[in-house]
Amino acid sequence: MPPPADIVKVAIEWPGAYPKLMEIDQKKPLSAIIKEVCDGWSLANHEYFALQHADSSNFYITEKNRNEIKNGTILRLTTSPAQNAQQLHERIQSSSMDAKLEALKDLASLSRDVTFAQEFINLDGISLLTQMVESGTERYQKLQKIMKPCFGDMLSFTLTAFVELMDHGIVSWDTFSVAFIKKIASFVNKSGMDISILQRSLAILESMVLNSHDLYQKVAQEITIGQLIPHLQGTDQEIQTYTIAVINALFLKAPDERRQEMANILAQKQLRSIILTNVIRAQRAINNEMAHQLYVLQVLTFNLLEDRMMTKMDPQDQAQRDIIFELRRIAFDAESEPNNSSGSMEKRKSMYTRDYKKLGFINHVNPAMDFTQTPPGMLALDNMLYFAKHHQDAYIRIVLENSSREDKHECPFGRSSIELTKMLCEILKVGELPSETCNDFHPMFFTHDRSFEEFFCICIQLLNKTWKEMRATSEDFNKVMQVVKEQVMRALTTKPSSLDQFKCKLQNLSYTEILKIRQSERMNQEDFQSRPILELKEKIQPEILELIKQQRLNRLVEGTCFRKLNCRRRQDKFWYCRLSPNHKVLHYGDLEESPQGEVPHDSLQDKLPVADIKAVVTGKDCPHMKEKGALKQNKEVLELAFSILYDSNCQLNFIAPDKHEYCIWTDGLNALLGKDMMSELTRNDLDTLLSMEIKLRLLDLENIQIPDAPPPIPKEPSNYDFVYDCN
Fold first, then answer.
1. pLDDT digits (tens, 9 = 90+) for 363-412
2. CA gyration radius, the chain
3. Average of pLDDT values for 653-679?
4. What would the pLDDT profile of 581-617 be if each residue is shown by its tens digit?
5. How far apart are CA 647 and CA 614, in angstroms?
6. β-strands 20-25, 650-655: how paired?
7. 641 by DSSP, 3-state: which?
8. Is 376:421 a contact under the CB 8 Å cutoff?
9. Distance (Å) of CA 16 to CA 41, 106, 637
10. For 408-439, b where at least 16 C-beta lie within 10 A, e where not — what string?
11. What is the pLDDT at residue 718?
12. CB-facing half-sphere around the CA of 594: CA atoms within 13 A
């Protein structure tokens, strides 16, 4: 007979004594269980004791998390969080340097536990730590030279404890003094600072900026881009990552009017080339967190274009009209006629109208009207002028080439540039906030100060080339744009390292090549409509679905590493989840770092029987997506979120690393529950596998026309005299 579900068998340690094996009744109050354990070891004052996990986490057991205790868990009897917090509060104020250092080391470790953190914060521990940072450094200034390692470790542990305590979100960031901010900023601004102190100082500054508008203004006064740049020129990727994170935070929280000014400062300090040389092209792999920060910087940089993208052209603004005149002048090199020449006014108007038609504007009389649609607004005109000035030969060639063609075969440069700019803004998601989970940065955009404009210049030449290859007419404009979008998207997925490499990728993706790719994909996904084929599909579909189901379950058995995210500070904290080979239990547990191979089963301490799962919910229905916070409002995170609901009020919350893993896990969990697999990935896999299976079965019927209907049954013969009776 199996043991009752409320009884958990555990081992409990106590220093200097043999561990005890005992059964814990989860229905009994935790205080009663602790009293029973203390009585077993003849320990008085059981209220001063608590239980905690004996693994590396050392988290306290509370009434809230006691359900996480599983059979075979090793626990430790220790002093209660309140007692521990009180003792550490006193110890870190010790006059002995060694005692103080040891206390701060223990505090840095224990502060990861929210139960201890709450008790320490209740003793005004945050204020004590900030005072130690503000004044403690001066107090030990004289000792620093002779005890530098000790001093560095002390400050490092103090800042680590502070970061861990603040990460629980119990205390508001708005409560800190200018003196504290100045002190943290001084650690960043000072050269030769200890790596661990620098790392934690950068993390604190990032959190301050992201979580408080007032602190953003104070930090912005203390930290300049010039002071952050040297940290990017080092070799420590973690310091580089935190440095870019601070720059991103300052960029993100800057008022709209300050962002362009900040972008100009970044350009003056050559941030882009420094990142390209010391990060992207450094002789080491870029980790996920660095890739994310580079992606955020890329998005924030492109978002500077949003203002121009959403600005309509004012047809009465002479400065804006002059840009159009300049485009005409460069293309046709017409000598400007004197403005006071009265007799030539009509002639000039007629000539301008003819030239604007050659330039491919929709409105030949007043081209300014072409730029009143947003997006792309004035951004399209900016791109056209950049192309005309910086790639003048290519610009003149395109305009003159098209103006010499028949009207219906010309590729309208003006209209093409406007639609292309709009399309590129959609591809790069200009104006959208960066995702919390995306790592999709493109190295080529870090190779040029005007990367978007250069991107446009390459694509407008591609558009003209594709137009000629398609022998397109004005009616084919939208078809050409679709082909160009496909060419650009396919080239971007290869992550070219430079704009020249991007150009080479596009050269290989000619219209002929796109047709071949489309034909190949169409053949692979061909939907045969004849009745026999549809009947065959219907017959083999169940076995294909079973194949997909097995693949999903096999992937769940392999497991996936999930990142722990919170809206206060992005951290490299991971947890792993996998399905047992017999498909009956989900094993999961925290990891110190992203795994580089297979994660052993015994390292995943927590278990969830599949039989206990009540439902799987996704998106906004997930409990962790209903909480308020910046992260929870992110559309991309919502699309990757899913939760397992079990027991009465328990849930296991996930945020998938990408859309593919999201589909794998939601499909696999639904398959375990006997439900249909409804993901987009399943639909695509089903179409692909069905198509392949049908083609394999029809190989012998190649070049034979399959009829839409079965052959008619012939009439019965008039007699059966031809039948041979064996009897």
1. 888 898 999 998 899 999 999 999 999 999 999 999 988 887 776 778 89
2. 34
3. 92
4. 999 999 988 877 666 667 776 678 788 899 989 999 9
5. 7
6. unpaired
7. strand
8. yes
9. 11, 20, 48
10. eebbbbbbbbbbbbbbbbeebebbebbbbbbb
11. 84
12. 9
Query: In this structure, which amino acid lies at residue 333?
Result: D
Which two three-digit tokens encode residue 39?
């009585």
For residue 140, which amino acid is it?
Y
- pLDDT tens sequence across 495-554: 999 999 999 999 999 999 999 888 877 665 554 666 777 788 889 999 999 999 999 999
210 vs 187: CA distance, rounded Å: 19
Q: Residue 515 is which amino acid? A: L
Asked if 6 contacts 26 with a C-beta cutoff of 8 angstroms, the reply is: yes
Going by C-alpha positions, the residue among 118, 153, 117, 111 that lies closest to residue 136 is: 153
Closest by CA position to 268, among listed 462, 16, 449: 449
CB 165 within 8 A of CB 121: yes
Three-state secondary structure call for residue 163: helix
Tokens of 356: 């604007």
Residue pair 448/454 in contact (Cβ under 8 Å)? The answer is yes
The residue that leads in pLDDT, 464 or 71, is: 464
What pTM did the predictor assign? 0.77
Long-range pairs for 132-138: beta carbons < 8 A, 24 or more residues apart: 132/92, 132/158, 133/158, 133/159, 133/162, 133/180, 133/183, 133/184, 134/177, 134/179, 134/180, 134/183, 137/183
The answer for residues whose C-beta is within 8 angstroms of residue 536's C-beta and 6 or more apart is 694, 697
Q: Where are the beta strands (DSSP E) in 203-312?
A: none
Q: Which class for 486: exposed (0-12), middle (13-18), buried (19 or more C-beta within 10 A)?
A: middle
Domains of the chain: 5-78 (3.10.20.90), 123-305 (1.25.10.10), 308-333+344-519 (no CATH), 539-681 (2.30.29.30)
Query: In which residue are the tokens 């110890």 written?
Result: 91
Q: Which of 51, 47, 117, 59 is nearest to 88 (CA)?
A: 117
The amino acid occupying position 689 is L
* Closest alpha carbon to 541 in 714, 690, 355: 690
**Are the C-beta atoms of residues 567 and 632 closer than 8 Å to each other?**
yes
Taking the C-alpha atoms of residue 299 and residue 588, their distance in angstroms, rounded to an integer, is 34
- Written as six digits, the tokens of 725 are 């009776």
Predicted local distance difference test score (pLDDT) of residue 70? 80
184, 137 contact by CB (below 8 A): no
> To the nearest whole number, what is the mean pLDDT of the chain?
86
Residue 154, both tokens: 């002390």
Q: How far is CA 255 from the centre of its chain?
A: 24
Rounded-to-integer distance, Cα 46 and Cα 274, Å: 59
Half-sphere exposure of 162 (CA within 13 A, CB side): 29
Rounded to whole angstroms, how far apart are CA atoms 425 and 701? Answer: 48
3-state secondary structure of 76: strand
Percentages helix, strand, coil for the chain (3-state, rounded to 5) are 60, 10, 30
| Residue type for position 343 | G
Tokens of 448: 């040029």
Please state whether beta strands 7-13 and 20-25 pair in parallel, antiparallel, or not at all (unpaired). Answer: antiparallel
Distance between CA atoms of residues 442 and 454, nearest Å: 14
CA-wise closest residue to 508 among 443, 476, 462, 457: 462
In contact, 243 and 228? CB cutoff 8 Å:
yes
Give the Cα separation of 462 and 508 in Å (integer).
11
